[in-house]
Write a structure and sequence with these properties.
Chains A, B: Pfam families: Epimerase. The structure is a homodimer. With about 325 residues, chain A is an alpha/beta fold. The first copy, chain A, is built from twelve helices and 14 strands.
Chain lengths: ~325, ~325
């Protein structure tokens, strides 16, 4: 089985690649070949026996989509995307990568099937809870409408619609995975509005101060990077019959307040860590976060077997295992 | 004020044009100039004092969108579309006209504003209840999700998302009008799956037999062509503040069963007309209709002042007034 990953250099892309390479299977089906592509060269994963092709190219280029479809991969994980903040700053780039990227890929797959014989790959598309826009009900059901308040959210919502229509027409077997907030992101603090959700855990665990720009009562739904990878792999194993026509699914997660995140940190790393969180209220950041969805029902995804962590303690422990070598630095 | 209508040769386009030309205003604002475009030349409306430009061109061509935006119309009614059945038969044409058509137009408007000075027209987009897909709740609320089961529905849903994002970014003042079933359509019976909703009234009123392929219990939401025109004009008069960020609206209508349609016909044209309806059950037609949305809540549109008929009798009377010269033919 040939697996293609676009956006393979991203945080999720690298972890997905590493897991598939290490296990050599995807949902118990052996992987014979890996193709990795991104705008910056993805690192070559360890432990994979078969051939690995590393490609450096632009996900918004129709010729790239054609070349990828011509490889006729059996499973495609389409993770290539411009993040929310960048899509908002650079309108053209956001539409080119986030909308034209998936559309070109879908059309290239269809044309490959038309011109070179039947070809209907599994296509797993990384979508986002950003397809939803405030105001929200107490819990967002699987039947809540899609009214994004960012260009990123609009682009992902359009990608979902294209994926569903191309799937319905039999050109591809699509499944859209709407990620909740994925924490704890490794690396340094960044300027993204939601960066603090990771930062208030990541920095204190390393003995560093972290700024908290919002109130402790802010509610949000999170899953670990390990769960995100699990969502993608599980999605690739679902059949057309299991999915039915509504192929885009809100993923489960751990819904907690910032205060509850901090209590989890206290249980795992003690008062000394918690003291490193400094309240620095920022109305602008607070207002952005208020536009984001808080709690998901995710009943369909749960029924289909998607699994996230049970509580935020588990998310922190996974961060320690996967990013900190299994123990606290200090 | 300069008004542009795309798809001006269609049934709704011609009636919208005729009303704007006759009244010389749109929501009490004087119209100084009319531009009408379609792939077949729109007829020149009567009674308009100002200049009328008639254009024959392809709504899917980016150069056409650029040329239209360069005219800097104040209000654009974008009605150009390939109908549902054709979009399903011709996948490429559907995407080119129904998706690229609105995207090209939005982008041409944005580029016009960037290159030739501020330009933010009002853009009224004809969408459809086809953006929804079964299974449905008893009544489809304004917050029900968008899961089209046709390519036409997917294309319209994507158009809505693009319109909302371009509006949010300030490039255009968009409003999407989701039409219910529009009846009674004039003309001859056609092969469309929902054609009988008009046919079982139109033909008997003229002393002709009409086939009814579905059961009398089938429920559907209708408005007259006169209401459809009213929706578009009312939409053009709504401010950004009235609309808020959720600019795509399900229109109100008269929700009746086929049996109730027939009872309305009996009240208006008597038993002789009703006897011309011949039951001809057709499982294929029946199955298609079962996938269509039945009843809408349309609370937001109603609160914003959109109005449809009160009952199906009124829809029949409007057909007699607007299409049959005000009296029954026989």
């Amino acid at each position: 089985m040939h697996v293609l990953i676009t956006g393979a250099s991203g945080m999720i892309g690298q972890r997905l690649t590493a897991r598939l390479a290490r296990e050599g299977t995807c949902n118990d089906r052996p992987i014979s070949r890996l193709t990795l592509t991104d705008v910056v060269a993805p690192p070559k994963p360890a432990g994979f026996a078969g051939p690995i092709e590393i490609r450096t190219e632009d996900a918004g280029d129709p010729a790239v989509a054609e070349a990828l479809a011509a490889l006729r991969p059996d499973i495609i994980f389409h993770l290539a995307a411009i993040i929310s903040g960048e899509a908002e700053r650079d309108f053209d780039k956001g539409y080119r990568i986030n909308l034209d990227g998936i559309r070109n890929l879908l059309e290239a797959i269809r044309q490959e099937g038309i011109h070179n014989g039947p070809y209907v790959p599994k296509l797993v598309f990384s979508s986002s809870s950003g397809i939803f826009g405030a105001p929200f009900p107490a819990s967002i059901s699987d039947e809540f409408h899609v009214t994004p308040l960012t260009s990123y959210g609009a682009q992902k919502a359009i990608g979902e619609l294209l994926l569903a229509d191309y799937s319905r027409r039999g050109f591809v077997e699509g499944v859209g995975v709407r990620f909740p907030s994925i924490v704890i992101r490794p690396g340094k603090p960044n300027a993204s509005a939601g960066g603090f959700f990771s930062g208030i855990i990541r920095e204190p665990l390393q003995g560093l101060e972290a700024l908290l720009p919002v109130e402790d009562s802010v509610l949000f739904t999170h899953a670990s990077p390990r769960s995100a990878v699990g969502f993608l792999i599980h999605a690739a194993g679902l059949s057309r019959e299991q999915l039915g026509p509504r192929i885009n699914l809100s993923m489960p997660g751990v819904c907690v307040t910032v205060g509850e995140q901090i209590e989890a940190l206290r249980r795992i790393a003690g008062e000394r860590a918690v003291k490193l969180i400094r309240r620095a209220p920022d109305k602008a950041a607070s207002d952005i976060v208020k536009g984001w969805p808080t709690r998901f029902d995710a009943a369909r995804a749960t029924a289909l077997g998607f699994k996230a962590e049970k509580d935020f303690d588990e998310i922190i422990r996974i961060h320690i295992e996967d990013d900190l070598g299994g123990h606290l630095p200090n």
